[in-house]
# Entry
Amino acid sequence: MDKINMVWSFLKKILVISIIMTTTVYAKNTIHKSNVVDKQARPYFLKFQKHYKKVIKNMTVIVGTIRNKAGEELRNVAGVCFYRARYVIINKRTFRRTKNMQEAIIFHELGHCELKRKHSDNKIDAPQFIKNDKCPESLMNSGHTEFDRNLDRCYNRHKDYYIDELFLRLEK
Ligand SMILES: [Zn+2]
# Structure
């Protein structure tokens, strides 16, 4: 009898653990229903969430036209984050560039809106291999607000570095 109970309690433990694991994996591969994310931005949103290891909530990511207060289109601005509103607009022109560019700009704007990161323009902090390549030290470099050919090249070459830098140097 004791043996059966032990086996049963062991099985129950395994069941609970697998349910928790499945829900965690599911949560990380799903966009929470409180978000509004443009179809084109969804794969990048999920990739960001995977690196972040947290479920993002109440965020809006739109791919469209960026305008100033006077209603004029800001053609050269690649993306923008309205921090308080948790509202990101990615310029639809960004989506005519490369996949690297699409990803880098979405990560930059979510860096502001979700990670609360400010612009980082401190070249001194960059590791030598980044300096040698004449690349910025962070995806949060302010130069990326506008379309930036250098960003495409640098992100393509040093993606792992930039993703580490983005998530490991969160401002507490
Ligand atoms: Zn920015």
In short: The CA atoms of residues 34 and 58 lie 5 Å apart.
